[in-house]
Amino acid sequence: MFAVENLKHAYDGTEVLNVAAWRAEQGAQWLVIGPSGSGKTTLLHVLAGILRPSAGTVGVAGQDLAALGAQQLDRFRGQHIGIVLQRLHLIPSLRVMDNLLLAQYLAGLPQDRARAGEVLKTLDLAGKEAAYPHELSFGQAQRVAVARAVVNRPKLLLADEPTSNLDDARCLQALDLLQAMAAACAATLVIATHDQRIRARIPRHFELKAAA
Amino acid sequence: MNLATVSLSYLRARRLSTSLNVLLLALGIATITLLLLATSQLEERMQRDARGIDLVVGAKGSPMQIILSSIYQLDVPTGNVSWQQAQELARHRFVKKIIPLAMGDNYRGFRIVGTTHDYVAHYGARLAHGQLWKAPLEAVLGAEVAAGSGLSVGAHFAGAHGMGGGSEGEKVHDEHQYRVVGVLAPSGSVVDRIVLTSVESLWAVHAEQYDIKDIARIGELMSDEEKEYTALLIQYASPIAAASLPRYINQNSAMQAASPAYEITRLFTIIGVGVDVLRGFAVVLILAAGLSVFIALYNALSERRYDLAVMRALGASPAKLMSLMLFEGLLLALIGAAIGIALGHALTGLLGLALTQAKQVSVSGMTWVNEELWLIVLALGVGVVAALLPAWRAYRTDVAATLARG
Lengths: 212, 406
Fold this sequence. Notes:
The structure holds 2 protein chains of 2 kinds.
Chain A: E1 2-11, E2 14-24, E3 29-33, H1 40-48, E4 55-60, E5 63-64, H2 70-80, E6 81-84, H3 96-106, H4 113-122, H5 138-150, E7 156-160, H6 168-184, E8 188-193, E9 204-207
Parallel strand pairs in A: 3-8, 3-9, 6-7, 7-8
Antiparallel strand pairs in A: 1-2, 1-4, 4-5
Helix pairs in contact in A: 3-5, 5-6
Chain B: H1 3-13, H2 15-50, E1 55-59, H3 63-70, E2 81-82, H4 83-90, E3 95-107, E4 110-115, H5 117-122, E5 127-130, E6 138-141, H6 143-149, E7 156-161, E8 172-184, E9 194-198, H7 199-206, H8 218-221, E10 228-229, E11 231-236, H9 241-252, E12 255-258, H10 260-303, H11 305-313, H12 318-357, H13 371-395, H14 399-405
Parallel strand pairs in B: 4-9, 6-8
Antiparallel strand pairs in B: 1-11, 1-12, 2-10, 3-4, 3-7, 3-11, 5-8, 6-9, 7-8
């Protein structure tokens, strides 16, 4: 589904990421683990096409990301990659439904209220369509963030530290959610984490070493 | 969901800052709208009132005062001119038509002007009711006078001495009651604001040595030396007159000639200074609004750093973020311009109401001048310029770095 080779990224001459090779099948679920500063977030950004690596090749869903122009890459990301950020970052001035429609609009897809409503319903958010993000509990907000990431039926679902700062019960809930939603749209799931609690739940681990 | 919805949602989320920016811009636009409407209408009306009058002759004094008092019924007259000299002037070969005016009284602040039927014809005024005056002490009311006083055909009233400046204790000519014989339809000219009668009426009212019964024959009873006019409106027989007639009058008589065209231009030059000051003030307001919009958008940028990065992560191109900020500036400007122009028209309407009550040349808030389109363009320009730098910064958002920090 995706494959990276000889991936290197450097900031101001300091190498922050070095991956010789990694590939994942469609629908597979992976953890990216490693200590802070080992480049977990950077790797996620490279997979998402948010960051162009200094060297190496990245292919997602059969597409070589380096071959895409800036605007094509943005469009590709919007349509095929869903991202759940650690701090969620819902757009505070938009209602829940509009946050989902925004994801469709920015990806250049038709705005499908029925699809958005269906996703919200699956995530037990029916009735919250008109709420603003600040009116939601943390758990609800997290589910909206997941809903926004999967509303376009992505092929690749990325989550950056989705369970840090959560207690044990919520941690497992969040993980269940991500796994279920990824499975529902047959997306490959990649979770970057240093959370020991979820290691046992996902057997495939990709380990990054701390930068030298 | 589109850029407009997102922009609007951000504007709604920051209501206070949005209202302040809109208000600032609206005040500036309203001031300029008011100036545009008021000056264009005043100029148009003043030019219309003076149309076809080549020269005004009055007693020696300020030419501007002669024009203001005789054509616009605004200032007080400079004095009187003798009937005999007026007759001589009427025979001058350069004079095509002469309309005499006699003033000195008012009814509830509306001037009573003694003249000939030529005056009514000159302004193209039509009768709404009744007929024009035939005998002394018959009066015809301008449309605003009729509306303001409630008098109609058949009513009687007495004039008060003075030009209606509103001073207390004006002497009322009780013994000489005017009778209303006609009411004019609105003409949009100075005629609307005055009471018209014959010149003899004013002579009769002020010549108390004659018996009230002899009023009808007052013109015959008075000696030529006693008869006086306040001013004369003159139409030239030929364009050459402009070069010689004013000089001839000023040098060979006790009268003063004043050219309406010249004095109006001079008046607007003088008013122009005040208008320029107000306009400058409005421009400062608009610039302040632009600056305020800029600061608001710039601050919003740091608040929205993550929002912008998230939008990029959701597939938005940098150009889209740039348009988002530009659109927000444009939207603010458009709302400000719309409110400002509406406010400007409302203020002009209020000004018109006040001027009508003061019996002055009036303006209306219900007209539209093409320059207002330029005002909208100006406002939108200010909005875009204010949003340029924030838009550029949004364009340059470093998604990876911003998200990594969050």
